[in-house]
Amino acid sequence: MRTRKKRSFIYCWDGDDFGYLPEKASEQELVDKVFSPLVGTSVDTVFFLLGCGHFAEYQSELLKPLGEGQDYHFNNIFTYKRYANVKHLLDQQQDPAEILIRAARERNLDAFFSFRLNDIHDHWAANSDFMPTFKKENPHWLNPKEWFPDFHGRNEMTTALNYSDKDVRDFRFNILKEVMVNHDFDGIELDFMRSPFYFHWDKGLTSTYIMTDFVRSVRELLDELGNARGKTIELAVRVCTTVIGSKMAGFDVEDWARKGLVDIVIAGTGGMNIDTLAFKEILQGTGVSFFPCLYGEYERTASSDEVMRGIAEVLLSEEPDGIYAFNTYPDERSRIELMKQIGSLETLKGFDKTYIVDMDYDYILTKEEWRYQPHLPATLGETVHEGLVIPIRAGEKLDAYSQVQAHLKIWIKDWSAEDKMVFRFNGREMEAPVIKAVAGEYGQCWLTWELNKREIHLKNDVYIQLLERNIHLKRYVPSVVQRINIEVRFG
């Protein structure tokens, strides 16, 4: 019987610190860079990404180090320093994986190996230096690009591995086996969200058995190693924001949990509309814990601390087992204090927050991640009887605070004062808004209203009805709801 540890705050470290260190950094410099930002936080588990699943930032016979692949060239100083620092440590017989595991244990932190099963950062020209040798040597392993038209009709994702091919699955499994045999990690994260192009876009549902077979093989490996070492080695999986979306992409999370294959389920990669209640329902009685993913870059750009606090509070309000921080990048310049705040509802109390409606990406990792939840932008059409209703979640009740200001802010792209519109918040019709400029957006406006703190709930509805579009704009310039925010400021 496996013993699962209780966790509350998982931090995913993605290896970028190798690139931000000085060239040929020492072991101590690496340790300080990784762990200093976690002092004073409630982080209890660190997931270490050592090479994106493409190259090895540890001693390996199966994967080459970054910088030593076929026809390789560096695109920038960042990837060069990432390579130089890993090579420097390995040349001194210091395995970065061992350094990080040892340092984590010294700080009473558990260390997992995070493995991206299908990272496609190598697709973009700016990241072509992440292209691994095994993809160049085995082009038949890659999915045909026409398999993945995105919401915009583009076929651009050309470097995803085809998991229908058993050779692909065997190769990826052997990488995991090598890592876990050679290093005493406390667990593995199978990161399916980097990126979920595993099967033809409409064949995920009929391919779930393939992924279940793969997950079972990893589970058996961890049990075998755990028995030999006298410990439980846990298996975490990161999947789509919804249960049904995950299954449509090929990940039958309920089946994995019921069969005892996994210990931790993490949902999300960049979307904040995570269906925590549905995940908790399918995991009930299995002993499997659930963590929503707090992403570091909402709204297409790096999010403010206020936005990050607001989203963390919303995610934690549905009482998951804890929170998982991804792409948060705490360092001496930013987010040090934020990391101390976002670990629990208690530590978030009384801090300024911005609650937002989920935003679309410039590219979409998978249709399944977005199909079942509302998100912006949304185009408005003229209607007579009904308007658009967009839900927006908020956090703690504000009655206990005497000094608090709250505002509803709506950015309607290319809004005109001649548009005839109706706005309601939780059923209350709003008066004329105060107009404020959208920073960095020429000619764009926030429509702003002050809110009573008592009318803000955990779940809110914003109603927008376009009765009549400006006659000079309606034919060529649509009215688009770009963003909806609730800002809460204390003091």
UniProtKB/TrEMBL annotation:
Gene3D superfamilies linked to this entry: Glycosidases (3.20.20.80)
InterPro entries noted in UniProt: GH
Protein name as catalogued: Glycosyl hydrolase-like 10 domain-containing protein
Organism: Paenibacillus eucommiae
